[in-house]
Every structure is written in C-alpha cells, then in structure tokens.
From TrEMBL:
Segments for region (Disordered): 72-97
Transmembrane residue ranges: 26-45
UniProt cross-references to PANTHER family, sorted A to Z: SUBTILISIN-LIKE PROTEASE (PTHR37213:SF1)
Keywords: Membrane, Transmembrane, Transmembrane helix
Lineage: Eukaryota, Viridiplantae, Streptophyta, Embryophyta, Tracheophyta
Protein name according to UniProt: Uncharacterized protein
Organism per entry: Erythranthe guttata
Keyword Transmembrane helix appears in the UniProt entry: yes
Length: 97
C-alpha cells in the first residue's frame, strides 16, 4: 500500500469512529462519553453490585444462625472396589482365573 492508501484507510477509520459516536468531535464528545459512563455506572453497575453484596451477607447470616446444619468435618473414605462401583461383584475377573 502506498502512503496515500494508508492515509485514506486511516481517514476512513477515523470518520467511521466519529460517525459511530454521533458525529460529535473534540471535548464535547469526550464529555458526553463521560456523562454516559457515569450514568451507566450509577443506574446499572452499582445497584447490581450492592444487590450481590446484600445477598452474600444474607447467606452468610443464614448459615451462621443455623446451628443444626451439617458440616463435613473429615474427608470421605474412598470406595475400596477397583471398579469404583458401589453395587455389583467385586473383583470378579480375578476370582474366575
């Protein structure tokens, strides 16, 4: 690509970005993006974070207050069968030999 081709491609990309932002240029464009980002944060992101935090706190309080809940205190014993099955004949192949 010649130098004219690069500058044309850059100009096309720049105009595309400018048009996608509503045709605003310079400081007014930046200010509008800042306002939009701030509104999005306070209307959507922050409330969802607070809701998630409240749900976690409620779950922690509920788990703390239930003194009869089951708590695993040791690791489960692994199944001694070679097949790993709970039901069935154990070591059937070795006995038949």
């Amino acid at each position: 690509m010649s130098s004219g081709g690069w500058s044309r491609a850059f100009g096309n990309a720049r105009s595309f970005v400018g048009n996608s932002m509503g045709g605003l240029r310079g400081s007014s464009s930046l200010a509008s993006w800042v306002v939009a980002g701030t509104l999005a944060y306070y209307l959507w992101i922050r409330p969802s974070q607070q809701l998630r935090r409240e749900q976690q706190e409620k779950a922690a309080l509920a788990a703390e207050s239930d003194r009869y809940r089951y708590v695993e205190k040791r690791k489960p014993i692994p199944d001694p069968q070679e097949t790993g099955l709970v039901y069935g004949n154990k070591n059937r192949e070795k006995k038949s030999e």
